[in-house]
Amino acid sequence: MLYPTLRALLFSLDPETAHRFTLDSLSALRALGLTRSGPLPSRPVPVMGLAFPNPVGLAAGLDKNGEYVDALAALGFGFLEIGTVTPRPQPGNPKPRLFRIPEAGAIINRMGFNNDGVDRLVENVQRARYRGVLGINIGKNFDTPIERATDDYLACLRKVYAQASYVTVNISSPNTTDLRQLQEAGELDRLLGALKKEQALLAQQHGRSVPLALKIAPDLEPEQIGAIAGLLRSHRVDAVIATNTTVSRQGVEGLPQAGEAGGLSGAPLRARATEVVKRLSRALAGEVPVIGVGGIMAPDDATEKIEAGASLVQIYTGLIYAGPALVRETVAALAGAQRSS
């Protein structure tokens, strides 16, 4: 009941100002002991060799630098994913770069991997008290030539390895020039080969294997999805996250802000993302788990992703529109679905 009133206040602010204000407020409330979610329904899920307390996670992008891990964990998520982080700090794209489309339950962003760099993220994670499942999402710097992108991913992987429960390789943001080119079969084959080789070396050095996940776009043709699935299987990638934001404007045509450049998230992405989850699940035949994300605005949307073949789900834009209660409600819905199946 309270959140719709609070959302009206937040939506009166510039989106980036509201973003920072909300996270700072959550952090302050946690310090006062006022954000504990209380007991949640038991819905443990084993994925990637990890034990997830529940299947509802936070998608990357909300906490790019790992500054709010403890505050966000108090909302009841089964896992958190922070980032995207790059080897060197970068400011991202010029402002304004974040736009709400409330008529459609959508957001457009062209943030451009704004972050304080991988070293700062690692420092923040080391200070956090959270000991749950933590994914760290890695990318390349905007000024790194695409032919040297692998160097950036390897540099980040080495830096975050000791702190991460799993590492997500983000090659699907539409807001870094040429990044999605890495989804093409030849480029992806080389990138995955290098990352899996480094993963094996780091596993020997650290005495544990940290799983690798790949995050892909929703704007792929069926044959591209099939090719990616083949590479995921052949390289034995640990998971795939489907999907990132879309460059499509289907579902927001003619609405204010809809013409802004960037990636679209929220309700209009739901069906498109679910279709990619479904196609991937069929192509992977259970060999590689799928994490479903995109357009989860209500518990039924998460159930749809699970029924399409996802093992876990992640939310972000839904949290902005529905508020923190969405986490608890979705965990409860999925636990109920598990009991009745």
Number of helices: 11
**What is the global morphology?**
globular
Mean pLDDT: 96
What's the number of extended β-strand segments? 13
Q: Which architecture does the CATH hierarchy give at level 2?
A: Alpha-Beta Barrel
Verbal overview:
It is a single chain. This protein has 341 residues and is of the alpha/beta class. The protein has a single domain (2-340), classed as Aldolase class I (TIM Barrel). 39% of the residues lie in helices and 16% in strands. The chain contains eleven helices and 13 strands. The protein has an eight-stranded parallel barrel with strand order 3-4-7-8-9-10-12-13, surrounded by five helices. β7, α5 (149-160) and β8 (166-170) form a beta-alpha-beta unit. α6 (185-206) packs parallel to α7 (222-234), α7 packs across α8 and α9 (299-307) crosses α11 (325-340).
Q: How would you summarize what this structure contains?
A:
The protein has 341 residues and is of the alpha/beta class. The protein has 11 helices and 13 strands.
Comma- or semicolon-separated keywords:
single chain, 341 residues, alpha/beta, TIM Barrel, 8-stranded parallel beta barrel, 3-stranded antiparallel β-sheet, 11 helices
